[in-house]
């Protein structure tokens, strides 16, 4: 493989250090972010709207020079040393921007003309499920089919590094699954992938590691399991007829960190899911009652994401609507611990 000494030393295919991007002289969209991606790893950048994901990825793709900090892709500066980096990377932008009068096959052929070692057109199209649409004009493709064509073009040169900016936006559920499958196969085949996405499920299912950006900074980063570990799990159920919350064992003894009630529905949050759920079910068994609507959920990336977004909006713990087990507040409002 065509690896530079730098790569051999670190095996960090992407290295980002204190990266900054300023627009119009005074708006800092990317405010000093640092992360690295190893060979064969799939790294996801998540973020609230306007968090700076695209601004960051464009710097990694060498489309602009950073206002501060450093980017290295395959050991090179992607802006200053574009010729060394570009042939080894595949880029799927949010807007493909290719001529819409051309057919699908003509578009791929045109792209192949400027790509060294390009896959055959048929192979590129069948990778993304467009093998039956070669003669359709690009302007006649659906939004989802255009995203697939964008992906085919990004894969044309069998890239070592693949940048995917919201690759499944506009795809239906089946198309999304197919794209995920393809991305997994590419990663398993050794391709390093940097993905931005709005779909938390996408990041949770695909990413080896991820970072959640907020207002140009990394709010949290790690494996999906690490990022979710700090979040509480949720249990909800309906109180059996004739029972009140006070009839349950003391919630603090069950490992519950917060609770809330809406009518007869009880929602608990716990960092000890197994202990809390077991104690609750044992109580129900002894009382010979059924916990209708019982729903037990592990902590998810969605929780972590919402927490970051809500904390940013100033909705911090301790506000009305949330009840600490040691406190006394009760309310029907949805709460985030
Ligand atoms: N060319 C530009 N000139 C000025 N401001 C810009 C420019 N491009 C982006 N911005 C601003 O920079 C911030 C980050 O934008 P960016 O598109 O990187 O965010 P994002 O995380 O990709 O957002 P989204 O999820 O909504 O696509 C936003 O406030 C955006 O309005």
UniProtKB/TrEMBL annotation:
Which residue range or ranges hold the ABC transporter domain? Answer: 14-240
Residue ranges that the Swiss-Prot or TrEMBL entry lists as coiled coil: none
One Pfam family of this chain? ABC_tran
- One of the protein's GO biological processes: response to antibiotic
SUPFAM superfamilies from the entry? P-loop containing nucleoside triphosphate hydrolases (SSF52540)
Q: Where in the cell is it found?
A: Cell membrane
Membrane topology type: Peripheral membrane protein
- According to the UniProt entry, which residue ranges have a biased composition of type Basic and acidic residues? 312-322
* The keyword Transcription regulation is assigned to this record: no
Q: Where is this region: Disordered?
A: 312-337
Query: In the UniProt record, does the keyword Translocase occur?
Result: no
Stored PROSITE patterns: ABC_TRANSPORTER_1, ABC_TRANSPORTER_2
Protein name as annotated: Multidrug ABC transporter ATP-binding protein
Organism, scientific name: Streptomyces avermitilis
């Amino acid at each position: 493989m065509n690896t530079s000494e730098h790569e051999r030393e670190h095996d960090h295919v992407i290295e980002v250090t204190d990266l900054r991007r300023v627009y119009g002289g005074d708006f800092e969209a990317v405010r000093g972010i640092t992360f690295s991606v190893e060979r064969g790893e799939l790294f996801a950048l998540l973020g609230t709207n306007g968090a700076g994901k695209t601004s960051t990825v464009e710097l990694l793709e060498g489309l602009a020079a950073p206002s501060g900090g450093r980017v290295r892709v395959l050991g090179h500066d992607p802006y200053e040393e574009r010729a060394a980096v570009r042939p080894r990377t595949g880029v799927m932008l949010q807007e493909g921007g290719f001529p819409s009068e051309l057919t699908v096959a003509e578009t791929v052929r045109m792209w192949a003309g400027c790509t060294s070692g390009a896959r055959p057109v048929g192979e590129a199209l069948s990778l993304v499920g467009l093998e039956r649409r070669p003669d359709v004009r690009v302007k006649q493709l659906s939004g989802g089919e255009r995203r697939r064509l964008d992906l085919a073009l990004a894969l044309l040169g069998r890239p070592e590094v693949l940048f995917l900016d919201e690759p499944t936006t506009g795809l239906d559920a089946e198309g999304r699954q197919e794209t995920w499958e393809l991305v997994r196969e590419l990663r398993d085949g050794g391709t390093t992938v940097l993905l931005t996405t709005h779909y938390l499920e996408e990041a949770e299912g695909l990413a080896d590691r991820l970072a959640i950006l907020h207002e140009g900074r990394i709010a949290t980063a790690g494996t999906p399991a690490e990022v979710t570990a700090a979040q509480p799990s949720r249990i909800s159920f309906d109180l059996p007829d004739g029972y009140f919350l006070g009839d349950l064992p003391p919630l603090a003894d069950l490992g519950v960190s917060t609770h809330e009630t809406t009518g007869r529905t009880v929602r608990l949050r716990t960092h000890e899911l197994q202990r809390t759920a077991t104690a609750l079910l044992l109580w129900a068994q002894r009382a010979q009652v059924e916990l209708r609507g019982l729903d037990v959920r592990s902590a998810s990336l969605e929780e972590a994401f919402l927490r970051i977004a809500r904390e940013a909006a100033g909705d911090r713990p301790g506000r009305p609507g949330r009840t600490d087990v040691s406190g006394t507040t009760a309310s029907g409002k949805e709460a985030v611990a």
